[in-house]
Recover the amino acids of this structure.
């Protein structure tokens, strides 16, 4: 596009002629005062004219040139910025025209000089954003149909820009993402599992033909969907309750690999056991002994459900409780010397003591039980299961060796005893009592 932004006022008696000069080209941003052409070479017989000068343009913004009448040169008067002057003209071929009026005795000739303003690479490439965040839904079955728009870079010089894509460590995102350079679109090359990796950091590089470049961060967030059910740490969790004087609180270890509401959980008991309750929000299992009624059942089934959308997912956890508080075990010893806690044995055929088992809740002798006695010296005792009397096992080879040695050295015999008592219908209802005894075998 050629502009003629000039106007002329001439005295009507003069003969007027308009002539076109050959186009010249100059770069933008030349220093003020730069000579862009010699007018003697452009305009014939210029030195013989009465006078000549530039015709004032319509707009002061286009008043860019001046004439040195001594040297007959056309000079730069103001800064020439291609992007400012040519934005509304034609950024691909910016052409402005100036008019020089030359006066002779009876004529005025107006010479029109087209000046092509050439763009130079004086502007940096810019993005209008500092970074871009893109959310990609995890495990999207239609990932191959999805594309995501990337930000365009801007070069005020109008240079062609090409783009390239890298991971944040400057490796290519092979197998992950692909760049559609023509349409500037990000294309995933797979579906993503947020639980394996929930964030990808990319760099988008914009470069022009002069190898000027700029980059911005592309942050890929893998958006969570509710695709994971809550998980119990163990298939079956066992807790031990041994304190009946206060409320006992237990916490299940449950994980949900999703996030936000997709991992927010609700806890509910499937079966009911007296004395047990559960906090629906935090999953604390609460045992209150004062509300507990004896039962052979010590297993709780707990349903854990998330708040995910569009569908809530759930799982079932099993918790068993070992009740160690129910039985009061007492070994009533015979011939116990209280002063030094030594049991004197005068007759090996008589019982050394009797086992007494009390149900603490019913406060009576408990009969529906099974038991076991472990000692630090194997097979040295036996228990009469009807009377619960404990005897030395005279058939024990170990006991006979001890007795023989005792005759020679007359030493006391130290023994550790562990007594286990449990409900025959549920071995998790169990109590344990330990004794350390010293015998003097006379």
């Amino acid at each position: 596009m050629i502009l003629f932004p000039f106007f002329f006022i001439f005295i009507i008696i003069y003969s007027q002629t308009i002539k076109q000069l050959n186009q010249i080209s100059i770069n933008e941003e030349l220093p003020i005062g730069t000579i862009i052409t010699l007018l003697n070479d452009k305009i014939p017989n210029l030195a013989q004219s009465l006078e000549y000068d530039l015709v004032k343009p319509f707009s002061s913004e286009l008043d860019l040139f001046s004439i040195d009448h001594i040297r007959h040169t056309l000079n730069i008067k103001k800064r020439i910025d291609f992007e400012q002057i040519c934005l509304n003209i034609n950024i691909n071929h910016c052409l402005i025209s100036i008019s020089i009026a030359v006066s002779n005795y009876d004529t005025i000739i107006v010479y029109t000089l087209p000046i092509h303003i050439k763009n130079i690479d004086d502007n940096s490439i810019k993005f209008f954003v500092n970074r871009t965040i893109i959310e990609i839904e995890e495990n999207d079955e239609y990932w191959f149909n999805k594309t995501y728009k990337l930000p365009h870079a801007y070069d005020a010089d109008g240079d062609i820009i090409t783009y390239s894509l890298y991971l944040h460590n400057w490796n290519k995102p092979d197998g992950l993402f692909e760049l559609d350079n023509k349409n500037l679109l990000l294309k995933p090359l797979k579906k993503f599992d947020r639980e394996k990796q929930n964030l990808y950091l990319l760099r988008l590089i914009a470069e022009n033909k002069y190898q000027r470049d700029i980059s911005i961060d592309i942050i890929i967030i893998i958006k969570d969907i509710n695709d994971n059910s809550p998980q119990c740490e163990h298939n079956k969790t066992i807790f031990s309750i041994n304190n009946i004087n206060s409320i006992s609180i237990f916490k299940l270890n449950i994980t949900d690999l999703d996030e936000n509401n997709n991992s927010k959980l609700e806890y509910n008991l499937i079966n009911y056991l007296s004395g047990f309750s559960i906090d629906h929000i935090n999953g604390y299992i609460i045992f209150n002994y004062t509300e507990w009624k004896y039962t052979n059942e010590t297993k709780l089934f707990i349903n854990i459900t998330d708040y995910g959308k569009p569908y809530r997912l759930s799982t079932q956890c099993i918790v068993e409780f070992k009740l160690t508080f129910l039985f009061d075990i007492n070994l009533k010893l015979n011939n116990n010397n209280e002063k030094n806690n030594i049991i004197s044995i005068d007759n090996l055929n008589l019982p050394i003591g009797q086992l007494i088992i009390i149900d603490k809740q019913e406060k009576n002798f408990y009969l529906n039980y099974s038991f076991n006695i472990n000692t630090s010296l194997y097979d040295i005792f036996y228990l009469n299961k009807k009377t619960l009397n404990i005897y030395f096992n005279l058939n024990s080879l170990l006991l006979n060796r001890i007795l023989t040695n005792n005759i020679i050295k007359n030493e006391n015999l130290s023994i550790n005893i562990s007594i286990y008592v449990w409900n025959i219908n549920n071995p998790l209802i169990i109590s344990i009592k330990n004794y350390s005894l010293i015998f003097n075998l006379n």
In short: The CA atoms of residues 14 and 106 lie 6 Å apart.
